[in-house]
Amino acid sequence: xxxxxxxxxxxxxxxxxxxxxxxxxxxxxxxxxxxxxxxxxxxxxxxxxxxxxxxxxxxxxxxxxxxxxxxxxxxxxxxxxxxxxxxxxxxxxxxxxxxxxxxxxxxxxxxxxxxxxxxxxxxxxxxxxxxxxxxxxxxxxxxxxxxxxxxxxxxxxxxxxxxxxxxxxxxxxxxxxxxxxxxxxxxxxxxxxxxxxxxxxxxxxxxxxxxxxxxxxxxxxxxxxxxxxxxxxxxxxxxxxxxxxxxxxxxxxxxxxxxxxxxxxxxxxxxxxxxxxxxxxxxxxxxxxxxxxxxxxxxxxxxxxxxxxxxxxxxxxxxxxxxxxxxxxxxxxxxxxxxxxxxxxxxxxxxxxxxxxxxxxxxxxxxxxxxxxxxxxxxxxxxxxxxxxxxxxxxxxxxxxxxxxxxxxxxxxxxxxxxxxxxxxxxxxxx
Length: 431
Hints:
Elements: H1 3-8, H2 16-45, H3 47-54, H4 58-82, H5 88-106, H6 112-125, H7 129-140, H8 146-173, H9 179-205, H10 207-214, H11 219-222, H12 232-267, H13 271-279, H14 281-284, H15 287-297, H16 303-324, H17 329-357, H18 364-392, H19 397-428
Helix pairs in contact: 2-7, 2-8, 2-9, 3-4, 4-6, 4-18, 5-6, 5-7, 5-9, 7-18, 8-9, 8-15, 8-17, 12-13, 12-17, 12-18, 12-19, 15-17, 16-17, 16-19, 17-18, 18-19
């Protein structure tokens, strides 16, 4: 790579127009991601209405989500393996547009079986959204702005979740739960149209500025002759990323799912109020991703070290909740919000920023897709695991709940502490 090409790839040498295009690209990727999170969440929020409308049990109503996560996981693994062989821009256009149409089709289904088929197809079409967005950012955004871009992208989770609750509440208020899916489909379609208009402009205005420095060397360039394609550092780091994705979902997903239950069963709060409080949890934790990017970006702190800062801080929260969850719903809410914020910071460090830090031997889009696949496996496990806990351990359920959180946090802290030692030991063995 020529020296002048490296200079062209820095943020400081970009023109004002190029900087505006870069920001527009980041926000366009954010819009698609936020809309996809809304699309994913809206069904979970509408579960109560679905069971009422069709006379289904909670187990039956959960089947479509199971199909969604199965196809989503498999499709993401395919996407991770194929990302270098496909045109990501065209893939976005086809899959996200199809997803928006399928989302509107949900409103026309008449049975759990039909809904399961549609949700399975939606899972396939969602496979490349987050990973593809990060891949586009790695192509068009200079390295020194990756942390900033990831900070913005990470807020899409909260925005999408909040929007899903708002659409569902509006649809129920209008007397028809299907309206939420019509609206969600149109919003998702609008976001992908916006993204492709921006990509067209960015491809012309930013390609020569950033893409040359964003091209990752092939794995062969990093591999010693006659040995494995990937270095020991990458293998260990990638393994930590995958494990962190699994653990994160098991730490985060139960909190949002069962927080209303805590208010209702332990504090006697009306269900409508508990749901309202939970609706604002995604908004309350918006600071987590920005804290994660700020810490990890500072002096290019390795993602495992940055992750442990958040994990150690968050460990205090379930320890406190173990003793006070029954005494005050206000304190329970405040500490839960603090916990969820810190966990979001951990996810930003161990997920997205990690993918951008170790992308010299595998592109960031593929790494992110693999980690999302691992997270999807956890999403399928969590409802069964914690559902069993609350069904069969009613008297001690919350104590066990917080002990599980403490155990998972301690385990991940240990992994992040030991992994760098393993890397150093393996690298010392190199000839």
